[in-house]
Amino acid sequence: MKLAVNYSTALAALLRQGVVQTDLIKCPEWDNLVDAGKALGAVTVHFEIAIGNGSLKKLDFELIGRMLATTDTPHLNTHLSAAPGMQANFKADQKRLPKAWARDLKTLRKAFPGVDIVCENLPYVPFLPHLELSAQPELISNFLNDADAGFILDISHARITAANLGWDPHETIARLPMARLRELHVTGIRRYAGLLTDHFELQEEDWPWMDWAHRQISTGAWHHPRVVAFEYGGVGEIFAWRTQKEHLRAQLPRLYALFGQSPQA
After folding, report:
1. Domain for residue 213, yes or no?
2. What is the pLDDT of residues 69-92, one digit of tens each?
């Protein structure tokens, strides 16, 4: 198990100073950021790939192949999405979406033979109603079991989905295919513009979730993931404003102790 952290200039400064530790630098599929990450250590790429929504035709397959070949990325990630207009309570869509996922997965496996492909749960939020269908735990579990594919659990996505649908978050995660876990994503959650939003620093109420996830892994209740990614920090207008060096300095040692390759505890 290795701890990955989103690349940011704040993280880069702390790593150069030697005051924090991580096993992997997590980058999007951008050449400039991957190069900057490689100057700091091993890089894992998290791709902006979605299946089930018709977006595969827009992918740069050459770029993906090059990133897989030139970084320490352990698998090819996808996001389990749905086409706009799909409805969670519509039986035809409940059958149609797994078929769309399967077609897209077949395309990726053909393009990247021998590469392990893993699928991440997206959050259901009210302004993207079609994602209620793709966030259904049983739909995800049945598909990944049938497809023999790995799973990325984003804990914050599952918690946001549960909150928006009135579900218990622990029970929601228990309904997901945790025996297929290959990667785990963790972030803090806060209300922003009236909505539960992730990719913040860990709040006090988030830490029990980190300890709980560690227990699930260490006791064998969940499959042992290859990577645990702290998806805090980044570059650009979406992430830079909520990236603070002091939060990384305070929180990374504690996370590395839980999830790092050479954990301190």
Report:
1. yes
2. 999 999 999 999 999 999 999 999
